[in-house]
Every structure is written in C-alpha cells, then in structure tokens.
Predict the structure.
Amino acid sequence: MDFVRSPEQAPPIPVKIVVAGGFGVGKTTTVGAISEISPLTTEAVMTSAGVGVDDPGQATGKTTTTVAMDFGCVTIDRSLKLYLFGTPGQSRFGFMWDDLSHGALGALVVVDSSRLDDCYPAVDYFERARLPFVVAVNAFDGKLAHDLDEVRWALAIDERIPVVAFDARNRISVRDALLVLLDRALDDAVRGQTAQ
Ligand SMILES: Nc1nc2c(ncn2[C@@H]2O[C@H](COP(=O)(O)OP(=O)(O)OP(=O)(O)O)[C@@H](O)[C@H]2O)c(=O)[nH]1
Ligand SMILES: [Mg+2]
C-alpha cells in the first residue's frame, strides 16, 4: 500500500492572518462574513462607563465590543487555508496585539474613513511590527467619508502599502481584500529572498 500523499491529497497550508483596527471599525463583522465555521467571538456588552471614552462613530447600533479576540477560518483553495484572528479595538486591550500577531503572515487593517484619528494607531503598529499589511477601508453603507487617496494621505500610508475599499458585511468583498493581502505578503517574501 502507498502511504505517500500526492500533492492533491496534501492538507492545505495553514496561514495566520490578523484582522486589526481601531474601535468599532468592523473587525468582528469582517471575520464573521468570511469564516466557513461559526466564528468564535468574545463580545461583551458595552456599559455606560464607556460613554465619552469609546466612540463607535457610524456604528451607532453597536452594543457589544470584542474583549479578547475573534477567530474564524476560510479555505482559499486546495493548498491554502487562512486562520483569521480579530483583535479587540479598544486601546486598553492593545497589549493583546503582540500575541495575536505572533507568527502571522500579514494583517488586514480595517479603517473607518469617518474616524481616521482612531485608525492611525493600528497603521502605526503594523508599520513598526514589520508585518505585511493592507489597509481596508470599510465602506459603511456603501459610502466612504473620504476617498482612498485622502485616507492614504491622512494616515501617512506608504505608497507601497495597498489601500482598498471593502464592505465588512460582504463575503466576496472581504475575500477580495484578503487576496490583496496575500499578494502583498507574497511580494514581500519574494523581495526578501532576492535581497538575501
Ligand atoms: N451599516 C454598516 N454597519 C456595519 C458595517 N460593518 C460593521 N457594521 C456594524 O458596526 C458595528 C461594529 O462592528 P464590529 O464588527 O463589532 O466592529 P469591531 O471593529 O469588531 O468593534 P470592536 O471589537 O468593539 O473594536 C456592528 O454593529 C456592525 O453590525 C458596515 O459595513 N455597514
Ligand atoms: Mg470586534
């Protein structure tokens, strides 16, 4: 009997991806929209103690917040399966980001274009972490408060970092944003190899 697996039978390569961003930008929504398993979430009800501290912006119906992480997964093709780790957005949980990013191939940094000042720390974090990332601007209700060039300028995003618009509630739109990230990570890896 032959116990050697053919490439078609080999299990997909697991790849860790972080879905990060400021408070209430749509990270949990993003993971939930694409995950092929019921996503693991750690939502806690927001209390009045957060009023004036946590501004959910356009997400005025928001009643819960992530306090540890979101987890989901999606098979891209026979050779690749993504494991998605969503971060908490509130800055007081920032200490979790190092652990959640450990071993990740890259990050999808979700941005709400109407609250750019809340989104800068996430962009800054991944620039310093030297992890490939893509800035994904969540078009709440199909509209962007600023166009993509303005977002790039306001957040001082390097021209080599892709900035894309997407809809966190739409599976295909999330998939497309993740494919841009995979492309970007592959580019980085190839560039790193040729520089050696
Ligand atoms: N209308 C609209 N609502 C959205 C969209 N994306 C997210 N929401 C809503 O916005 C709220 C916040 O989304 P979440 O996915 O919880 O945001 P988050 O970034 O995970 O929030 P934290 O974990 O608290 O930082 C939820 O009530 C969503 O239903 C969108 O594209 N359009
Ligand atoms: Mg969340």
